[in-house]
Each structure stands twice: as structure tokens, then as C-alpha cells.
From TrEMBL:
Classification via InterPro entries: Glyco_trans_2-like, Nucleotide-diphossugar_trans
Originating organism: Aequorivita echinoideorum
This protein's name: Glycosyltransferase family 2 protein
PANTHER family listed in its UniProt record: GLYCOSYLTRANSFERASE (PTHR22916), UDP-GLCNAC:BETAGAL BETA-1,3-N-ACETYLGLUCOSAMINYLTRANSFERASE-LIKE PROTEIN 1 (PTHR22916:SF3)
Residues covered by the Glycosyltransferase 2-like domain: 6-149
Domain of life the protein comes from: Bacteria
Length: 257
């Protein structure tokens, strides 16, 4: 028997996408969930849209911030308020397939798995396919995850009952990488990947994540500020990161017709 899945969703001015994201949770075949939405001081129609869903479904919990604090702060606040055995993440512009939670919770129980993730597909701002699949590694060790973030945040689930709640560190970017690395570390065994397409990642124009070169400095700071490595060691791991990103990571990205 599985348990409640607490779904963490930060929101900031996402009126164009938030309804579809919430619907993809409401339509899950697995029904034992709570959706914890934290609005980061939006000024568009996001709040009204969320309130409408909340009135219809008691499993939706909604918290609003008066001042913008950033997505990591919102995820941490939601994590602190979570009641679930499992914790999962869905950003306000991404989508899940209806069977996602059922497949992953069943898989985790059957395989005594603390950290699980899956394939996902890329879509554009209008929800059209971009013919790109990111494939989940079947087994992901701490050492491998340290070289690159192989877990798509929108697909990851960890067992908070066995690992405890994991809060994102106070670093400007790459917080999700840190969370999944910590989850694998606490687990003491590899994260397990499911080679099924269970989610849709929306690629938005002008997003920081769309321009990987902008993240070079953040990758260095991940090693220096988060893992507390020395400058030489951080630079060394940054070089390893590049090797992993350009030589190994492409093996797990598939172009579709």
C-alpha cells in the first residue's frame, strides 16, 4: 500500500499555464495526493485560477506570499507543510501524464526504492511536441549525479518517510540538482529510473534553463558553495561536468520524428 504523495508547485505569474498543470494532477489515476501550491506574489490571474480549482478539490492546498521570494523558497515552504510519505515536484508550466504517480509509487514499493524518476518529453509554450525525449538512466549513483543533474525535477519522487524532508540550499540556481543529490546521498543507494514518458517539460522562450551557457557560473558555485569544495577541486569538477554534459549526457537525449 502506497501513501500520500505531496506535490510541490511554486507559481509566479503563470496564468497562461497553471490550469493545465493542475488538471494534470487532478486527472491522476492515483488519487491519494495533496497538491501544495505556493504563489510567489503573482500579479496576474494565477491566484483566481488556483482558487477556483481549490474550491472544487479539497486536496489542493494554497499559500500566498506577499513578497517575491523565488522558486526555491516556495518549494521549501511547501515541503515543510507537506504531509505525504512521498514528495514530488511539478512546476506551474509543466504537465504530467495521468498514470505518472501510479506507475512511480508502484515501482518504488516493488523495488524498495527511495528515489525514482522517469523519461520526459519537451513541448513548446503552446503545448506542441518539440520531438525531444530525455531518457532516465535505469540506475543513478551519487557519483554520477554529482557530475550532472540527470533527474528531471518534474519526474522525481523521493520517500520522505525514509529519507526525511529535503530542503533546497540557499544557492541562486541549481537547487533541484542539490535536492536530488542529497536524496541519493541519504538513500545510500542509487536512484532508479523508469524508461517511460511520464511528464512534459515546457520549454519557454528566454528561460535561463534554455541557455545552458548562462549556467556555467552556477555550476561552479554548486561545487564551491554547496558542496564546499576548494577552488581547485571545484574547477576540476566543473571540467568533469563539461565532459559529462557534452560527451555522456547526449546519450540520454533522443530526437523523435
Amino acid at each position: 500500500m502506497s501513501g500520500i504523495v505531496s506535490i510541490i508547485t511554486p507559481v509566479f505569474n503563470s496564468s497562461q499555464f497553471i490550469a493545465k498543470a493542475i488538471e494534470s494532477v487532478v486527472n491522476q489515476t492515483y488519487k491519494d495526493w495533496e497538491l501544495i501550491i505556493v504563489d510567489d506574489a503573482s500579479w496576474d490571474a494565477s491566484i483566481e485560477i488556483i482558487e477556483e480549482f481549490k474550491q472544487k478539490d479539497s486536496r489542493i492546498r494554497f499559500f500566498r506570499l506577499d513578497e517575491n521570494q523565488g522558486a526555491a523558497f516556495c518549494r521549501n515552504l511547501a515541503t515543510e507543510k507537506a504531509n505525504g510519505k512521498y514528495i514530488a515536484f511539478l512546476d506551474s508550466d509543466d504537465l504530467w501524464k495521468p498514470e505518472k504517480l501510479q506507475i512511480q509509487t508502484d515501482f518504488m514499493e516493488q523495488n524498495n526504492c527511495d528515489v525514482c524518476f522517469s523519461n520526459y518529453l519537451h513541448i513548446d509554450e503552446n503545448g506542441n511536441p518539440l520531438h525531444k525525449r530525455v531518457i532516465a538512466k535505469s540506475s543513478l549513483s551519487y557519483k554520477k549525479q554529482r557530475l550532472n543533474n540527470y533527474i528531471g525535477n518534474l519526474t522525481g519522487i523521493y520517500n520522505a518517510e525514509s529519507l526525511g524532508k529535503i530542503l533546497a540550499p540557499k544557492i541562486r540556481k541549481r537547487q533541484d540538482w542539490a535536492v536530488w543529490l542529497e536524496a541519493i546521498h541519504r538513500s545510500g543507494k542509487p536512484a532508479l529510473g523508469i524508461q517511460q514518458d511520464l511528464a512534459f517539460y515546457r520549454v519557454r522562450k528566454g528561460s535561463v534553463s534554455a541557455n545552458k551557457w548562462k549556467l556555467i557560473n552556477y555550476n561552479f558555485l554548486f561545487y564551491r558553495d554547496y558542496l564546499k569544495y576548494s577552488y581547485p577541486k571545484s574547477f576540476y569538477f566543473l571540467l568533469l561536468f563539461f565532459w559529462e554534459y557534452f560527451m555522456q549526457r547526449p546519450k540520454y537525449i533522443e530526437k523523435l520524428k
